[in-house]
Design brief:
Elements: H1 2-15, H2 32-35, E1 42-44, E2 50-55, H3 58-69, H4 76-86, E3 101-105, H5 110-115, H6 120-134, E4 139-141, E5 145-147, H7 159-166, E6 170-172, E7 183-191, H8 195-206, E8 210-219
Parallel strand pairs: 2-8, 3-4, 3-7, 7-8
Antiparallel strand pairs: 1-2, 5-6
Helix pairs in contact: 4-6
């Protein structure tokens, strides 16, 4: 069913003009004014070293929801580029010893990821790395974090519930890690309570990486 619905969406896109997921205007997946809502990285207080590009409301919220929950994967280039513009402005030297920006995508619950057509934050990280590379930076994605089978989708959970849901539920695949001691940037779409970012950071650091920053498109905190 998921494959057929994806084929249907692609067929419709060939016939109908693009519709901006932010404002509904015709012509592009995301018009220039709506893409501009993602600004410079701002500190988010829910977890140390966390930054977001916009508040999770209005146009930013509509864009993230359209991409994440409603199959608008045509937004990936726009959202990935927004993250890429922010990475060089994060404080501190964030490149690894090899001079590479290492981006680690936050994982989704396995069932939710299947329903959404795959790991959506991984795609954002890849688009971000590609845009950085096009601008002359060295960038790479380290898909090292995975969720355990029992982890539920965190949508609608309070902070304590999120923490309990994730306890022991984030695992590290060492095959996806850069060299020990490398500074990495944890990438996500929404920072809600900071519970996911905190658990992911702890998992990465226990595996020998140093999380230099957490970067999200939006923050609801």
């Amino acid at each position: 069913m998921g494959e057929r619905s994806g084929m249907f969406r692609r067929a419709v896109e060939l016939v109908l003009p693009g519709v901006c997921a932010g404002c509904g205007g015709l012509g592009a997946a995301c018009c220039e004014p709506c893409a501009g809502v993602f600004g410079s990285p701002s500190v988010v207080g829910c977890v140390p070293g966390a930054f977001a590009l916009a508040r999770y409301r209005g146009v930013p919220r509509r864009l993230v929801l359209a991409y994440k929950e409603r199959g608008r994967r045509d937004l990936a280039p726009v959202l990935g580029a927004a993250l890429a513009r922010a990475v060089p402005f994060l404080p501190g030297g964030l490149t690894g010893p090899d001079g590479v920006w290492w981006l680690v995508p936050a994982p989704s619950a396995r069932a939710a990821s299947r329903l959404r057509g795959g790991p959506h934050v991984l795609e954002l990280a890849r688009r971000c790395a590609g845009t950085l590379a096009g601008a002359g930076y060295r960038a790479a994605v380290a898909p090292a974090l995975v969720t355990a089978a029992g982890v539920r989708d965190a949508v609608g959970l309070a902070r304590a519930e999120r923490a309990a849901n994730l306890e022991g539920g984030i695992e590290v695949d060492v095959r996806g890690l850069p060299a020990p001691g490398t500074r990495v940037v944890l990438v996500d779409d929404v920072l809600t309570t900071g519970a996911t970012a905190a658990v992911c950071t702890a998992a990465l650091e226990s595996a020998g990486c140093r999380v230099a920053a957490v970067l999200a498109l939006t923050s609801a905190a």
